[in-house]
UniProtKB/TrEMBL annotation:
Residues 279-362 form the TGS domain. It comes from the Bacteria. Coiled coil: none annotated. PANTHER family: OBG GTPASE FAMILY, OBG-TYPE G DOMAIN-CONTAINING PROTEIN. Keywords: ATP-binding, Magnesium, Metal-binding, Nucleotide-binding. The gene is ychF. ATPase that binds to both the 70S ribosome and the 50S ribosomal subunit in a nucleotide-independent manner. This is Ribosome-binding ATPase YchF.
Length: 364
């Protein structure tokens, strides 16, 4: 699963990307500095993993991960091919969720492509490019469907009606995710077209150091502007956080954060938010060799969850031995949980819960 970082040039995307992935993408004070899409694999911070490590004392600990893609070069006119625009829009289509970075800091030394700081205008510029691209998609499809409809095909007529709603929504500047459609209409006709503006979105307000804990007037405007979208708005001092990741020790980093009025890096909140946005959750395996967090889509069955470890585990699935995270911590070890009769044996229909500690039994 992938989350893509979008935003106008110079709003702090590659700084954010660097700070998340610690991969050193090129970052400089001019538009178009990141030409190739950069992909980073980011660990998902999870306190439960630390607790399990303490209890099990394994040789190694492996956290869950999310893939983050830095999508540069989105500018006004991108949907018409400006500034390599179409290529970048293609990159967005391949992601599962969008992290939309908005510049909410003043700094004369950092050029703004449109001459002034205005996150609402910036958001609309990006939204419009994405909507225009989706409009192209829906128009193409609608042409085909209408032709099929002419032969009296009832399904095609129904589809044409739904797509017509999508088209007029986009034309009046509404993103697909916010267009008023029934669940059936979405599932049947809208999802398969993979519209860019149908992907779940989270707004990242990039603020200056002083506003890291409190936000600022720009952030308030953003929150107001997105109230209808049911989207999370996160405040992050991207530049400052990038500086913090450069510090050597955990203690130094923690002190710096406390000075800013923060308990944990905003990036941790962001990564967890992205994980949630992607509708993912975590189960654990815990043994002396390794304690590990595994990522599954919310609602995955036990065999599907086993398949994340290895496809053979799914094919040969027999049963899952499951301990809830709360029981594991309460009793302090697998042996004690078993003694207390709290380990459950679950079959193929079991829906794995976030935090389950699982052993799979399978045939090879
Ligand atoms: P991108 O084009 O969106 O990827 O933007 P960059 O990450 O390359 O950042 C553009 C410029 O803004 C760089 O010079 C960064 O150092 C600077 N910058 C990024 N975040 C912040 C911030 O939070 N505050 C300030 N003052 N500058 C920042």
């Amino acid at each position: 699963m992938k989350a893509g970082i979008v935003g106008l040039p110079n709003v702090g995307k590659s700084t954010l990307f660097n700070c998340l992935s610690n991969a050193k993408a090129q970052s400089a004070n001019f538009p178009f500095c990141t030409i190739e899409p950069n992909i980073g694999v980011v660990n998902v911070p999870d306190e439960r993993l630390l607790k399990l490590e303490e209890l099990v004392d394994p040789q190694r600990v492996l956290p869950a991960t999310v893939e983050i893609v830095d999508i540069a070069g989105l500018v006004k006119g991108a949907s018409k091919g400006e500034g390599l625009g179409n290529q970048f829009l293609g990159n967005i289509r391949e992601t599962d969720a969008i992290l939309h970075v908005l510049r909410c800091f003043d700094d004369e030394n950092v050029v703004h492509v449109d001459g002034s700081v205005d996150p609402i205008r910036d958001k609309e510029t990006i939204d419009m490019e994405l909507q225009l691209k989706d409009l192209e998609t829906v128009e193409k499809k609608l042409d085909k469907v209408k032709r099929a409809g002419k032969t009296g095909n009832k399904d095609a007529l129904k589809e044409a009606t739904v797509l017509g709603k999508v088209k007029s929504g986009l034309e009046s500047g509404v993103s697909v995710r916010a267009i008023d459609l029934s669940k059936e209409e979405r599932d049947e006709f809208v999802r398969p077209l993979q519209f860019i503006t149908d992907k779940p979105v989270m707004y990242v307000c990039n603020v200056d150091e002083e506003s890291a804990a409190t936000g600022n007037a720009y952030v308030e405007k953003v929150k107001e502007a997105v109230t209808d979208e049911n989207a999370e708005v996160i405040v992050l001092a991207v530049g400052t956080e990038a500086d913090i990741t450069e510090l050597d020790t955990y203690e130094e980093r923690q002190m710096f954060l406390e000075d800013l009025g923060l308990k944990e890096p905003g990036s941790a909140k962001l990564i967890r938010g992205a994980y949630k946005l992607l509708d993912l959750e975590t189960y654990f395996t815990a043994g002396e060799k390794e304690v590990r967090a595994w990522t599954i889509p919310v609602g995955a069955s036990a065999p599907q969850a086993a398949g994340v470890i290895h496809t053979d585990f799914e094919k040969g699935f027999i049963r899952a031995e499951v301990i809830s995270y709360a029981d594991y911590v309460n009793y302090g070890s697998e042996a004690k949980v078993k003694e207390a009769g709290k380990m459950r044996i679950e079959g193929k229909d079991y829906v794995v819960k976030d935090g389950d500690v699982v052993h799979f039994r399978f045939n090879v």
